[in-house]
Amino acid sequence: MDASSLTKRYGAKLAVDDLTFSARPGIVTGFLGPNGAGKSTTMRMMVGLDRPTDGTVRVNGRAPHAHAAPLNEVGALLEARSLHPGRSARSHLRSLALTSGIGRSRVDQVLELVGLADVADKRVGSFSLGMGQRLGVAAALLGDPATLVLDEPINGLDLDGIRWIRSLLRGLAAEGRTVFLSSHLMGEMAITADHVIVVGKGRLLRDQPMADFLQEARVETVRVRASSIGQLARLVEGAGAAVELGGDAMIVEGLSSDHIGTLAAGAQITIFELSPQSASLEDAYLALTRESVDFRADDHDGRLGHAADMSSDEGAA
Ligand SMILES: Nc1ncnc2c1ncn2[C@@H]1O[C@H](COP(=O)(O)OP(=O)(O)OP(=O)(O)O)[C@@H](O)[C@H]1O
Ligand SMILES: [Mg+2]
Fold first, then answer.
1. Which atom of ligand 1 is nearest to the CA of 184?
2. Strand runs labelled E in the chain
3. Residue 39 belongs to a domain
4. How close is the Cα of 6 to the center of ligand 1, in Å?
5. pLDDT tens-digit profile of 194-239?
6. How confident is the model at residue 178 (pLDDT cuts 50, 70, 90)?
7. Which residues line ligand 1 (CB under 6 A)?
8. Which domain holds residue 147?
9. Among the bound ligands, the one closest to the CA of 32
10. Cα of 36 to ligand 2 centre, how many Å?
11. Which of 25, 53, 165, 205 is 20 to 30 A removed from 254 (C-alpha atoms)?
12. What CATH number should be reported for the domain holding residue 70?
């Protein structure tokens, strides 16, 4: 799936701003960005539900609306799905299946796959948020599509559900499918996605292998407690590291725990604690997207007016 100069304007609002990226088969691509970054808008254009103002999207080599049997080409889970509350999960899926000539046995298969087989005949109006998400995933899988576009599939899932969807998505990618999903949860994406695309205010901020993102995000520090902490701090600084002393401990940045331990041994200093720590991935992600947050909790009318946009960092890129 390829997006090329993809742009969507709603009146004066540039929701998606010249995005070019690809999601490849065989891997899970995570699509991240703060609220209002343009993720859902991008995904709607990917599945042909919204028309780009400019640029193109190609799914399996074709424009999304050009697909004769869309359920077989691209399976989608989007925001604000409308479900008939009085219908059962099974009848909902059966009516969807009918539109693409998909048989009833496939409906039973996907119900099993998403763990809804036992409640398949219950009214969807009585479903919890997580059950609704599972039903949405079932609908996306119905046509056994080569490409999956899932907008926040983790929302509303409990821990068990999160683990389930993680292994489901990894399995689908391993079968050679293109799996593209959005999320706000950087930590979850770090273990689910192979590749990461980060957007902010409609613009591309990152497009790289997850391993590279994690590597760049990582600030390794070592927490140290030792018999002569002041002396060790001077040795460590002498070796080029930055030290932050606090009480009987120090945090060292720029030197490995092996190196610190060796320095201590050389000076006959007894180490009580030597623990490498990684800066939180969430911190790195927040730092990356901070400049492009569409609205903040203290910005009461950020979504309603455009004043916030004009006064912010529009010209920064
Ligand atoms: N139909 C619409 N009409 C007008 N503006 C819209 C419409 N849909 C989205 N927008 C605006 O486009 C921007 C991007 O919205 P979008 O829903 O794509 O963001 P998102 O990244 O999915 O956010 P979230 O994380 O909250 O789901 C927002 O500023 C939003 O207000
Ligand atoms: Mg969204």
1. 25
2. 2-10, 13-22, 28-32, 54-58, 74-77, 147-150, 178-183, 195-200, 203-209, 220-226, 242-246, 249-253, 271-278
3. yes
4. 15
5. 999 999 999 999 999 998 988 887 777 899 999 999 999 999 999 9
6. very high
7. 10, 13, 15, 33, 35-41, 294, 303
8. 2-214
9. 1
10. 7
11. 205
12. 3.40.50.300
